[in-house]
Amino acid sequence: MTLQPLNNTHIIELMSWFNDQHDITQWAGPYFRYPFTAQTFIEDLNLDVSTSFVLVGQQNVLLAFGQYYQQKNKCHLARLIVNPIRRGEGIAASLIKALCKHGQLNLNVNDCSLFIYKYNRAAVSAYKKLGFKVAANTPENHDLSPLPENCVHMVK
């Protein structure tokens, strides 16, 4: 598996991984439009403010996608997703480790963070196994943009 920058071919395949509003909202939050077009999908990815990568396997198979950006002196991971037909193979862990390593080096920070819906138990469990913890309710965390209902901030 290799981490590669996102390209237009990846975007088209990535779009095929979502079947309804619930899938999109769970992945990208409440502001990502659905139904989408190629143009609105690209716009909503916020490629100008987030660094976007894909994890590619043998024969250039698209395995996963994720983004990061700097927030509160942390590498903040966003929009993490594994190819639906490849879930349960440990790909999420590989993606998260690779994005954290790349982001920490690129942004010159030590810690990582992410937002996750509480009801996405599989993802919460995966993040905890990788060392992420629910962030304490501190003044630093109050400065974050308002989180959607049922969303938690996790840090590592």
UniProtKB/TrEMBL annotation:
UniProt-recorded Gene Ontology molecular function terms: acyltransferase activity, transferring groups other than amino-acyl groups
Segments forming domain N-acetyltransferase: 1-156
Keyword Acyltransferase: yes
Domain of life of the source: Bacteria
SUPFAM superfamilies xref list: Acyl-CoA N-acyltransferases (Nat)
UniProt keyword list: Acyltransferase, Transferase
Identification of the protein by name: GNAT family N-acetyltransferase
Organism: Pseudoalteromonas sp. SD03
